[in-house]
Amino acid sequence: MIDMIAAMKTDFTVGKITAKPGEMVSGFLDEGIPVTVVNGRGDGPVLALVAGNHGYEYPPILALQMLRARLTPKKLAGAVILVHAANMPSFLGRTVYFSPIDQKNLNRVYPGKKDGTVSDKIAYAITNEVIARCDYLLDLHCGDGNESLRPYNYQIVTSNEEMNGRIAALVTMCVIDHIVVDRGRPADPENSMYCSNTAITRGKPAVTVEAGFLGVPDEKSARLIVECCENVMRYLKIASGKAKSIRKPVYLDPAEVVTSPETGILYPKVKKDDMVKRGTTLAVITDFFGKKIAEVKAPVSGKILYIVATPPISKGQPIGCVGVVRK
After folding, report:
1. For 22, which of 41, 43, 196, 225 could close a Cys bridge (C-beta 3.0–4.6 Å)?
2. Are strands 136-141 and 206-210 parallel, antiparallel or unpaired?
3. pLDDT in tens, 231-255
4. Beta strand spans in 190-311 (E)
5. Using CA atoms, how far apart are residues 138 and 209, in angstroms rounded to an integer?
6. Domains of the chain, earliest start first
7. Within 13 Å, how many C-alpha atoms sit on residue 221's CB side?
8. Model-level pTM greater than 0.90?
């Protein structure tokens, strides 16, 4: 068995934020990261909920606002850590993918560096003050400001069968029925890159949740994320009530990310949730004078999980993702 942090009937501290049993306390970690610590009255595991690794992805950030208002610490066991907006420079700067300060993608620099750039420091703070203090983690995302996305979750597969079983069980409690089986994440804890993978390489089951599109502050998507978090809390016995497992999960294995061969203006030719055949045109790219310079085709047959739906496109950036539906 993997040892758990397991919040007991004692004070629980994250960074400089301390909550007594039955108490909810909010404050800021290093690098101005807003966090709420919810310490239950009973013994139980610690769940970390991280929103805003990408600052333009608004539904997860709104979801944790909603969830915070619904939590009653005295009725909980264990603890919940809510990271309301991990990437404050990107959130306040309204930037897609990259920090406006150092031009880094926060969700590619974990576990971070204490003496690096601002994105490195944010990742370091979350790794050492949040991930180090939790037993389970949900990294909450949606389609960024350029991505038209249908809801799905990532189930990371590792070389550890016990961990794989725990992740597989956790993902079926995340209420969203489409599950991308991801076999390509780094195994090195010092080069984990992604927030959820950083938890997994440290022995903590984690799932990346995707619900929302084009950075729209969509209430329906935010409520779906709240439902996911609350169901996981019931599954972990942090909250009372019966957790519901996904009845008919749709596994997508593999899921191919398609990148742009050129820089120019993008014209998507498919929509999220479409089923496509291999070779279907996903998008056409023109130069800035209207001349077609590339036609991007589906590498596999499957479902469109997301498609970039705004005109700007740079060479090497994602255009979309096609998931192969497992029979």
Report:
1. 41
2. parallel
3. 999 999 999 999 999 999 999 999 9
4. 206-210, 250-259, 264-268, 275-276, 281-286, 292-297, 302-308
5. 7
6. 12-235 (3.40.630.10), 253-325 (2.40.50.100)
7. 26
8. yes
